[in-house]
Amino acid sequence: MIKTEKVSFKSSELNKGEDTGYGVECLEIGITSMCNMKCDYCTAWDFGNSVSMSAEDAIETIKSVPKLKRVKLSGGEVLLKYQTCLDVVKYCGENNILTQINSNGTVLTPGRIKELQDAGLNFLHFSLNFYDAAEHAAYYKVNEKNFEKIIKNIALCAESEIDVIVETIIFDKTHKNILKLVNFIHSLGVDKIELQNAVPQEQKCWDDVVSPEEIRDVIRKVIHNKPENLEIFFSCLNLCGTEFMAEIAPFYNKNGVFFPGCIEGKKQLHLHSNGDVLVCELGAPKVIANVFKGDKLVDIHDNMHPDLEKFLATNECACARNL
What is the count of structural domains for the chain? Predict the structure, then answer.
């Protein structure tokens, strides 16, 4: 295994250097639409009627993108296809491609954590929106033991050599208790938290988002009260040209507070397990190609697919809300 050089989480999104033009450098692969949870704010498990992608197909697609720097494996709950994930991570580790796994944390074991670490996994990205087992169980309609398993696995991973990130969605069930949740996650040994702005999901009739002012309050509370050794990444936010941007300028990408830029369509595409290619999973979930029907990811950029060109020209992503 060839170990990749140490890089920061969201290094591509935080790269403020000279624009090198468009091109696929990052790829999110939805290995499976299977999931053992059915979160209201997530549409990924609805796609493809529980279709899964083989490691061979995923690796062939990765090989077809010559400048690929990072691969994210997601689902559904992607670790339900654990061996596929392990095989892809091994291939990427041997070819100097960064890897990230997005998981709900329910199906990990100490043995699997060790195997993923040894395979060269760079980032394990967990989802956690509650700090209380009863609230978690009530919202997701699962047994309270589910929560206990998740936090145990997060803590175990935080002790490993894998970089651990926990993502919390800012929506009506989390924004009022955000500081308690941030401190709880940090108590598990986690030093990186991503706070993502909720995106309405029309196909699920889910719109439990909070107002721009409530999001601004979340940002203020967190940047002024976060633990010193904790890094916070605020994502899916459009801060350009606002008075609020001037207010938080002293904290912008400083002292552990980061506002990653969006690379959807510019540097990153999404691949579903059935071969469908999307510009943005949540913000613009329109299929623009299919790799199992002969489409090539690099051609989408080299020939500027019409839907991609429109997306880049109009910034029609649902995530792009001004604050």
Answer: 1
